[in-house]
Structure formats: C-alpha cells, structure tokens
Amino acid sequence: MTTFPKPIGHYQIDGDYHSSWQSPNVEEYLPYNVDAIGKSVERDPELAKEAEKKIYDAAKRITDELGGVGVFGCELFVRVTDGRVDVYANECAPRPHDTGMTTYISHPQGFNEGGLHVRAAAGLPIPARIGDGYRLFDPIAPAASHVIISPAQGFDPEYKGLFDAMTVTGTNIHLFGKPLAYPTGWIVEERMGIALAMGTDAFDAKRKAEIAAHKIMIRTATDTEWKGQTERRMHVVQ
Q: Name one Pfam family in it (predicted).
C-alpha cells in the first residue's frame, strides 16, 4: 500500500540540494519553473493537478518495481510543453532524503519523513485520506527548508547567530552536530544544518528559511574568523 505526501519542490546548486518546499496547495509551485522562484506568476490549477497526479503515478511505478518498505525519495523532473505535462524519473533513494527534511516542520510531530519511515518499516498504521484514488498524507502548513553550509574548514565547528535566526517568525534551526566542517569546493560542500520555516505559502516559507539560514555564522578551531553564508543564486532574498 503506497501513501504519498504532497510533492516537494527543490533546487540544487552545483549538484547539491540547497532548498526545498511543500504546501497543501500544490498550485503554488507546480508545475515548477526555476525562473519563477520568488516571483509572482500566474497559477494554473488544472495544470498543477495534472502534474501532481503524474508525479504520484511515476513514483508508484518506480517503488512498485523496486519493492520494499519505508520512505522512498523519488526525484522527478516535471516538464510542460504546449500545455502537456510530462514527468521524468531522475533517481530514487530508498530512505529519507535531504529534500524531505522540509517535513520536519510541514508535517505533524512524529510524521516527518523519519517518523513515516519507522512506521512503514515497523508495519504501523499511517493515517491518510483518499483523494482522486490516491492515499495522501497532507502537510499541515506551507513550509520550506534551506541548507546551512560551512564557509570555514576544520574540526570543532562553532555557530553564531542562532538567536537571531530563531527570531524569524515560524522558523526553527536544526544543526547536525558534525565534528568536521569544510567549505564549498574543498571536497564537496559540507551541510552543517538546515533552517526550517512555515509561511503563508510555499514561497513565503522559502523566503523565511533563507533569511534564517543566512543569519548563521561558522568558525572552527583552525579557521577562527566568523564567516557567514554567501551563496545567493536562485534565492528569493538577494
């Protein structure tokens, strides 16, 4: 039995997840256009509904073929050409996925991607509603996540700006407790945590998560100067 959360939109920078978002109202971001991030664009409810259904159908075909239990992170591309929606598979991770960390604030407590994974693996019930023939698990609010990456290199990272970050309305900060930090381009960028936010819609949540994440500064035992988040590509807030 397959249960679907609402589709999660995300973008990558230099091949790595940078931000993701989810909302009960998928027409806020489906069909997704990377050029529309943070802009006021005309919504198309019918096109969004078609894209949502095709996402569920593609994900079910993939997971039925793979088999198993638990959360499967299916990464898909949505393309619209002359009013026609096509969905293409990119990858499937048979585990909770980095983009799915948005559910740590968009879903009820205990039902984030980690909680759903445990429930599925343990054979515990997952409450869902039936909509258009699909078992759906709805988010409680529009929400977004934004990565906190390390601009510093070395062991024993320290963090500054947490209080300021948590003063942004509807946000929370999760630090991963990693003992080693290194900056983008050293090996790969090191994700040290995420900022989570709820908003009036998906892009309002995305804006808040960006603001909170960019208030965090990092230094290490050997790289002692406080350094902040500098990446601004594809951001709502410039």
A: PurT_C
CB-CB contact of 203 with 137 (8 Å): no
**124: exposed, middle or buried (Cβ count in 10 Å: 0-12, 13-18, 19+):** exposed
Q: How large is the average pLDDT for residues 50-79? A: 96
Degrees, nearest 5: CA angle 35-41-44: 110
40: which 2 tokens?
């006021």
Nearest to 227 by CA among 154, 133, 131: 154
Query: Which domains, ranges and CATH numbers included, belong to the chain?
Result: 3-228 (3.30.470.20)
| pLDDT tops 70 at residue 98 | yes
CA distance 5 to 138: 6
Residue 37 has pLDDT above 80, yes or no: no
Phi and psi at 80, nearest 5°, equal -120, 125
* 153 Cβ neighbours under 8 A, 6+ residues apart: 181, 182, 183, 186, 220, 222, 223
DSSP 37-51: TTS-----HHHHHHH
Count of H-run helices and E-run strands, the chain: 5, 15
